[in-house]
């Protein structure tokens, strides 16, 4: 079965480019294109795509609002949303995290990373562009402890305790360090010589121990813990 994708971006050329890339990938089918957030929400609810690929800045309702409507806290049947950004403003990505986004890509990520992000979101995993992770960590490090302010003054990702109630194992610390460097699951497995399923098991355990909801929060927790 093909992964059914809905694209939302206010720029026609961007939508056309994303469709061309995705339609050329085996196992991916673009089922719709939306020009703004309101249209994206309506089409997503009507078409029920496997993955929504949303730009952040769109008219009427932006990608953050659309993400909250389709994947945010309290949504009974959340849809996987991957946010695509030019990364002009780091705080938008923090807010997208809190809105329920599952993955993040830069618009120049390229076909391979785009394909991997779509497939990861469809199977319930998350893929975040390593460049996004690095920029997030740089922005976080520049704020000091106490969290980061989100878009338009909204609270950002809060500071997390330096030590979890249940200590991390040595292997979990290795996986955590790799996540903080922006490595994906397959790359972590190759570097640590462990299977993909083992990587996922360690990630789930670490997230539960430190209270992180996704890879970026996990990476930020790692950086903050080192600073304390």
Automatic annotation (TrEMBL):
Q: Which residues cross the membrane?
A: none
Q: InterPro entries recorded for this chain?
A: CheY-like_superfamily (IPR011006), NreC/VraR/RcsB-like_REC (IPR058245), Sig_transdc_resp-reg_C-effctor (IPR016032), Sig_transdc_resp-reg_receiver (IPR001789), Tscrpt_reg_LuxR_C (IPR000792), WalR-like (IPR039420)
Q: Which UniProt keywords apply?
A: DNA-binding, Phosphoprotein, Transcription, Transcription regulation
Q: Name one GO molecular function term.
A: DNA binding
Residues that the record marks as modified (4-aspartylphosphate) are 55
Compositional bias per record (Low complexity), positions renumbered to this chain: 151-167
Q: Which domain of life is it from?
A: Bacteria
Stated name of the protein: DNA-binding NarL/FixJ family response regulator
Tell me, which GO biological process terms does this entry list? phosphorelay signal transduction system; regulation of DNA-templated transcription
Domain annotation HTH luxR-type: ranges: 161-226
Region annotation Disordered: where it falls in the sequence? 148-168
- Give residue ranges for domain Response regulatory: 4-122
What PANTHER family does the record tag this protein with? TRANSCRIPTIONAL REGULATORY PROTEIN NARL-RELATED, TWO-COMPONENT RESPONSE REGULATOR
- Keyword ATP-binding included in the entry's annotation: no
